[in-house]
């Protein structure tokens, strides 16, 4: 196995996942509301979507890159609508009766929703293409190298989401239910704000 290539791909996945954004807010809120497993499942959805975009970048599939770029408007509209819907859901949700308790959610649903949300951001693929271009890893010479890149990207991204979910879960035991509700509502408002900014950027 080409260990340096795998580690480089892990770093790419970690760097793409780490910046705070709507996905990070979803992971944090779901961890507070439903526990570390649901929060991590949400993060895995983003990691899987990152791996899909990473595969396109690693293989240098320019036709798919152009297709996603052409679909910027509908993808942005769908992504904005999903963020607003999720934000409203956060505003309406109630925290557990005690900080030590969690409301168990569907891991599959958490994974699928964040996977779809991440895929609706056409700028993600451009970020991967740009990173690969800088590192000289675009259009890898073999399928095995591309697979190694995709695996590394997924691993690096998943590692970030695991650390975030575990860290938030460890801290939630020190929060009282009113604070959990406040944090959930704040996250909901921020998600709606992200969605509005995303939609406004279309006509700016």
UniProtKB/TrEMBL annotation:
Transmembrane feature ranges: 6-28, 40-61, 67-88, 109-135, 147-170, 182-200
Keywords: Cell membrane, Membrane, Transmembrane, Transmembrane helix
Recorded topology in the membrane: Multi-pass membrane protein
Location within or outside the cell: Cell membrane
The keyword Cytoplasm is annotated on this UniProt entry: no
Alphabetized InterPro entries for the sequence: LeuE-type
Chief location of this protein within or outside the cell: membrane
Protein name: LysE family translocator
Native source organism of the sequence: Chitinimonas viridis
